[in-house]
Write a structure and sequence with these properties.
The protein is α/β, with parallel strands linked by helices. The chain is built from 15 helices and ten strands. The strands form two sheets. The chain has an eight-stranded mixed sheet, sandwiched between helices. Bound molecules: nicotinamide-adenine-dinucleotide and SN-glycerol-3-phosphate.
Length: 338
């Protein structure tokens, strides 16, 4: 790793996999700081559009991309072969299908997940999925987490990201690669805790949205978020008991941004449910993916052998997957809060 041509950033052989909002935001950041960014997306028309007009036609369309530094393609093998560090930013529900095209090994790569979800059928977080299915050593796995909406990256509003890996050098290299005028970065070794926090905060954001849609006010939302923080802490402590400060920005910070922000996909999805939309109609309304919808179901399988009280996740499950009345379920949940 060294300075890039303008001497202002770093150079890592790095690539981003994904064509949505977060992948686009990460490519924008990395092309500020790196000479070269590989970028895979599945949509050939979008690739042509980006090369010609320097904008993603579907996501963060206002962002002008520095395409002279970006190698954008639908050829996943090419992107993976060229890179040492690969960031995955495909919604968890589509990760396995996206990887079907991959024929080159990942074992010798440094694999970072920017995905905040659980892999369907496998019922594991993304880091574990790459370890189990692609034989990526745990030391080569990292995650990029923290309270950061792609839309605010597009606006270059100051944001903070946490790069976690059990190999300090990889976390630190990624943190340097992502740091720019509007992104501050820090490192961590808590790859499990930060990933689970990001999965859970999406479910709690759905709950916040549902309650907002039902007409609950700020006073109640604050109590919901306090209870969600405790639920998150109980869960993470149980699945990966190490010393951590749950009030850190990759844990509580991410919960707060997703529960309160106007940009939150999960909160928006939940708000629609609270207002009476069906799951199907809420999905059709959104051009984007609310990860919490999938996580609500999958976290149940992850925790089935664990004795952890998770009243908020259970309430969201009842509403989304058992068709229970949101008003009644949230009223019953509210009785359990303190
Ligand atoms: N958007 C953010 O601000 C943000 C921030 C941090 C992390 N993340 C995480 O990044 C990941 C990607 O989220 P996003 O916000 O970029 O998603 P998005 O909703 O912006 O984009 C959806 C992506 O999924 C693809 N897709 C949609 N339907 C598909 C299908 N049927 N098969 C295959 N692909 C399909 C689309 O082509 C697009 O690339 C998620 O895990 C999310 O939690 C998002
Ligand atoms: O708030 P959401 O649901 O759009 O999630 C996006 C990011 O995870 C926020 O950090």
């Amino acid at each position: 790793m060294g300075k890039n041509k303008e001497g202002k950033g770093t150079h890592l052989n790095i690539a981003v996999v994904g064509g949505g909002s977060w992948a686009t935001a990460l490519v924008k950041i990395l092309s500020e700081t790196n000479d070269y960014v590989g970028w895979w997306m599945r949509d050939e028309e979008a690739v042509m559009h980006i090369k010609r007009y320097h904008h993603n036609p579907k996501y963060l369309t206002g962002v002008e991309l520095q395409t002279e530094r970006i190698d954008v393609t639908t050829d996943l093998d090419h992107i993976v072969s060229e890179a040492d560090y690969i960031i995955f930013a495909v919604p968890s529900a589509f990760l396995k299908p996206a990887l079907e095209a991959l024929t080159v090994p990942l074992e010798d790569k440094v694999v970072f997940s920017a995905i905040k979800g659980i892999v369907p059928d496998e019922n594991v977080i993304v880091g574990e999925f790459f370890f189990n299915k692609y034989r990526v050593p745990i030391e080569n796995i990292g995650v990029i987490m923290g309270p950061c909406h792609a839309e605010e990256v597009a606006l270059e509003r100051l944001s903070y990201l946490t790069c976690a890996s059990q190999t300090e050098e990889y976390a630190s290299n990624m943190a340097k690669a992502l740091a720019c005028d509007f992104i501050k970065t820090s490192t961590s070794d808590d790859i499990y805790g930060t990933e689970y926090a990001a999965v859970l905060k999406n479910i709690y954001s759905l709950a916040a949205g549902i309650c907002h849609g039902l007409g609950y006010g700020d006073n109640f939302q604050a109590v919901l978020v306090s209870n969600a923080t405790r639920e998150m802490k109980r869960f993470i402590k149980n699945v990966h008991p190490i010393k951590r400060d749950i009030t850190g920005s990759a844990y509580l910070g991410d919960l707060l941004v997703t529960a309160y922000s106007q940009f939150s996909r999960n909160r928006l999805f939940g708000t629609m449910i609270g207002k009476g939309y069906t799951v199907r109609s809420a999905m059709l309304e959104m051009n984007m993916v609310a990860e919490g919808y999938y996580a609500t179901k999958l976290i149940k399988s992850v925790k089935k052998d664990l004795d952890i009280k998770m009243p908020i996740s259970n309430a969201v499950y009842k509403i989304l997957y058992e068709g229970k009345n949101p008003k009644k379920v949230m009223a019953a949940l509210a009785e359990k809060f303190s």
